[in-house]
């Protein structure tokens, strides 16, 4: 009995999986995290978009999580991967089928001449039975296949998490861009009003005999130039609104009314920091590569098992009779119980080549993991540098915008007093408009740096529970739709 149990349990050939290790730096070169910073970041990792302190952004993210079609598609593919895993695992168990048949068979009477007298060529047949086939997984080929598909399913989970992070990052980036573009539109309208005031001023100075028609024409051209900046900004606002609606799985115009009212751009959160080891634990792309390495390692076992014999137990029980009442008699019984074995002898080196291929794929998967970790560390380092440097740049741009506004005010006063030419006013206006826009874009760069840094740290999926999506219609409805479209 013990020997039979050991025979059925078998063994699993091929290498046992060991998680890869990566060389992790002690800390980031650009910033040494304190314990307080690490605790603050950990609390914000689950829903980092809340750090921007914008209720509208929170609502957009929630609607995107519920309605985004890419996430739903990824969910369905994950369901398919799990179903495939169950299909593979089902081969570990006996495959049982029940059959039944009844009717009349007619045999040819031309096969023997002359035909035997009194023998009918018609034959009534009644049959029922059961067939069982059980593939004994003595060397672990099926179990390694299940192991590989388990890892594939887990890799699919991480892939969907990565898609979630990129989608949420796109929502946050588009929303921040929308609010900053609305801010730019406000700046443009303010500058149009200022340019209109400048035109009226030049016309007044001209009527007083202190100006020229050249100055009036220059002021008119400046006003028209400022007016021409409005339409591109309005187009950009509409496009961003459409993009946000599509990300949420809604019609493009769904958010236009909701987002039409300008609002202040989101608040740039404090610098999120984390230890390098946390990046390995949180980034979906790293976790996906680790699972792919586990899958490739299991595939080596599948290939090695092909070198060993395979055993199958086909069993059948099929009583047959010409009369129904005879089906349950001993004389109608037909059955078979066999043990089939297939031993690979010579395949021209093909099986050994499969093993080499599987081992090479496993090594490639391990190197891909190492490469992904390396690039992840580099990405975080880059995001930290950009976050810190763009913060300094944004402060400088704000100071420049204030100085440009002061210079414009002084240029207008001097021109009104006849102490300077209108060219100074035009130069100051252009500089002030460019300075305000540059300051707004500088703030946008800081917001996008923060978004990119959170994503680089692998934050965001921890606080989102992505349930498996149900099928879009039930089986009965599918049959009804198929019948409705069936050609006559």
Automatic annotation (TrEMBL):
Protein's membrane topology: Lipid-anchor
Keywords carried by this UniProt record: Lipoprotein, Membrane, Palmitate, Transmembrane, Transmembrane beta strand
InterPro entries linked to this entry: MdtP/NodT-like, OMP_efflux
Subcellular localization: Cell membrane
Location of region: Disordered: 468-488
Residue spans of biased composition, Basic and acidic residues class: 476-488
PANTHER family given in the database record: OUTER MEMBRANE CATION EFFLUX PROTEIN (PTHR30203), OUTER MEMBRANE PROTEIN-RELATED (PTHR30203:SF25)
Family: Belongs to the outer membrane factor (OMF) (TC 1.B.17) family.
Protein name (record): Efflux transporter outer membrane subunit
Organism field: Rhizosaccharibacter radicis
């Amino acid at each position: 009995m013990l020997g039979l149990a050991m025979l059925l349990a078998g063994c699993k050939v091929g290498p046992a999986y060991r998680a890869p290790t990566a060389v992790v730096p002690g800390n980031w070169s650009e910033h040494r995290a304190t314990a307080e910073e690490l605790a603050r970041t950990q609390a914000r990792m689950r829903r980092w978009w809340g750090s921007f302190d914008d209720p509208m952004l929170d609502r957009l993210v929630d609607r995107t999580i519920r309605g985004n079609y890419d996430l739903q598609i990824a969910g369905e593919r994950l369901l398919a991967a799990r179903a495939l895993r169950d299909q593979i695992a089902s081969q570990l168990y006996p495959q049982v089928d029940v059959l039944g048949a009844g009717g009349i068979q007619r045999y040819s009477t031309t096969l023997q001449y002359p035909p035997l007298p009194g023998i009918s060529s018609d034959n009534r047949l009644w049959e029922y039975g059961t067939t069982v086939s059980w593939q004994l997984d003595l060397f672990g080929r099926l179990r390694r296949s299940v192991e590989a598909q388990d890892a594939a399913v887990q890799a699919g989970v991480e892939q969907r998490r990565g898609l979630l992070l990129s989608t949420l990052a796109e929502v946050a980036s588009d929303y921040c861009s929308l609010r900053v573009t609305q801010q730019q539109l406000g700046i443009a309208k303010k500058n149009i009003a200022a340019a209109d005031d400048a035109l009226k001023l030049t016309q007044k100075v001209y009527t007083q005999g202190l100006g020229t028609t050249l100055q009036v024409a220059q002021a008119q051209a400046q006003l028209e130039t400022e007016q021409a900046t409005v339409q591109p900004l309005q187009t950009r606002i509409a496009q961003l609104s459409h993009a946000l609606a599509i990300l949420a799985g809604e019609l493009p115009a769904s958010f236009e009314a909701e987002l039409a009212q300008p609002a202040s751009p989101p608040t740039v959160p404090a610098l999120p920091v984390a230890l390098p080891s946390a990046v390995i634990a949180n980034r979906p792309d790293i976790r996906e590569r680790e699972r792919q390495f586990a899958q490739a390692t299991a595939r080596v076992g599948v290939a090695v098992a092909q070198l060993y014999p395979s055993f199958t137990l086909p069993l059948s029980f099929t009583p047959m009779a010409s009369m129904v009442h005879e089906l349950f008699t001993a004389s109608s019984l037909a059955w078979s119980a066999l043990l089939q074995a297939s031993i690979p002898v010579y395949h021209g080196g093909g099986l050994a080549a499969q093993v080499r291929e599987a081992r090479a794929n496993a090594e490639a998967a391990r190197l891909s993991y190492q490469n992904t970790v390396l690039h992840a560390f580099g990405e975080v380092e880059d995001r930290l540098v950009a976050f810190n440097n763009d913060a300094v740049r944004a402060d400088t741009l704000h100071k420049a915008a204030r100085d440009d506004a002061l210079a414009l005010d002084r240029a207008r006063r001097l021109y009104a007093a006849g102490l300077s030419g209108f060219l100074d006013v035009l130069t100051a206006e252009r500089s002030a408009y460019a300075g305000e826009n540059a300051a707004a874009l500088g703030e946008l760069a800081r917001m996008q740096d923060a978004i990119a840094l959170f994503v680089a740290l692998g934050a965001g999926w921890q606080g989102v529970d992505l349930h498996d999506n149900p099928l879009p219609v039930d089986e009965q409805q599918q049959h009804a739709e198929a019948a409705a479209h069936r050609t006559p």
